User: What shape does this take?
Amino acid sequence: APLQRRLGTVVRRLRRDQGHSQEGFADYIGVHRTTMGRIERGDFNVTLDTLQRVAKGLRVAVSPS
Assistant: This one.
């Protein structure tokens, strides 16, 4: 879905900008590394709980735009 791909692109950019590896960030927020990869590729319909974990780990707010 286009929304999932846009979310994944933003998450990947923010994670990289903050210097986190994908695997290290996944460990930090408590999700499996394959889940993190699927989120970043837009292959995963992320739950609100997981979205909140990602946002908190990246120190950003979850808000519609």
